[in-house]
Specification:
Elements: H1 2-40, H2 46-50, H3 63-94, H4 99-111, H5 116-130, H6 137-161, H7 165-173, H8 178-206, H9 210-214, H10 248-256, H11 262-295
Helix pairs in contact: 1-11, 3-6, 3-8, 3-10, 5-6, 6-8, 7-8, 8-11, 10-11
Length: 298
């Protein structure tokens, strides 16, 4: 009887501590958001979104920064997600379990915890110098893609492992090949878990500053990358991939380091825009995850 009372007492203590910890986290987040809104909501407006950076805080804008952020995130997604999913499918479904695959798995797990500045040095040496891509959008996107690739691989592998093997056996019993089973049965069932990894990886990438500073992203950009749509055949241009760029985290960092008080309001407004972009990206990923979850019937 005493043991039961003691167990219930510990359960109640754990519940209270967990509830308090959750409240502290939520309260801190709410205070930070309210503080940013109070400082920056007055600077938000069409002029702020459509103007280039300026030495005068009242005239400064974030046009080049938020356009560069969207460019970088789109390219990072195109580079990291397919590669990460294909690598995870190979390691989980095709590779043989031996010392080599064990070594690869250990390295992937370790890479997920490497500081982002190390990836910046890698991007500088590999993409900017060795591959002569210069300090361009494609260099920044490739650097961020390598940064989030371990997260995508690990989360995709966990999602694939969660699929019951009976689904694979049923598909094989109906005459499907291994690839047909993976393509039409396993991947669709694992997609909600994969999208969770995508959300985590893209949320990390959108706020990274150190790797982009290392490869030479600019703090002042008064122009936009070339449009991917061309008026001449084949009506698609890749020139913008090789243009210099900046992103919102770098622009915010630049404004915060300025002594003028007006730039703090600009930085707060930039944070609000960055949060909106992040929430929109996550909302799309959550919608896709929910859409495929509804289709799954075990």
């Amino acid at each position: 009887m005493n043991r039961n009372i003691l167990s219930k007492w510990f359960d109640n203590i754990f519940w209270v501590l967990g509830f308090i910890a959750t409240l502290i986290g939520l309260a801190t987040l709410i205070v930070l958001i309210l503080d940013v809104l109070a400082d920056g909501v007055g600077r938000l407006g069409w002029q702020f979104l459509t103007s280039y950076p300026s030495r005068r805080p009242e005239s400064a804008g974030i046009l080049s920064a938020w356009i560069g952020t969207i460019w970088i995130m789109a390219l990072t997604t195109l580079l990291s997600i397919p590669l990460g999913i294909m690598a995870a499918v190979y390691l989980e479904e095709y590779s043989r379990k031996n010392w080599l695959t064990n070594l690869i798995e250990i390295n992937i797990a370790n890479l997920a915890g490497v500081p982002s500045i190390i990836y910046g040095l890698l991007g500088l040496g590999l993409f900017v110098r060795a591959m002569s891509l210069e300090r361009s959008l494609i260099s920044g996107a490739a650097t961020l893609a390598i940064l989030v690739l371990p997260i995508v691989i690990l989360s995709t592998r966990e999602a694939l492992r969660a699929i019951p093997f009976s689904i694979r056996e049923a598909s094989y019993a109906l005459g499907a090949t291994k690839w047909q089973t993976i393509r039409h049965q396993v991947l669709p069932a694992a997609l909600p878990g994969i999208m969770t990894g995508v959300i985590l990886s893209m949320s990390r990438a959108v706020g990274e500053t150190a790797p982009l500073i290392m490869i030479g992203a600019l703090t002042y950009v008064a122009f936009l990358p070339a449009s991917p749509i061309s008026s001449e055949f084949p009506f698609i241009s890749i020139q913008g991939l090789f243009d210099p760029f900046t992103v919102l985290p770098i622009q915010i960092f630049n404004w915060v380091s300025r002594p003028q008080k007006g730039f703090f309001a600009d930085a707060a407004a930039g944070i609000i825009v960055l949060l909106i972009i992040t929430f929109m990206m996550n909302a799309i990923a959550v919608w896709m995850r929910h859409k495929y979850q509804k289709k799954i019937r075990w």
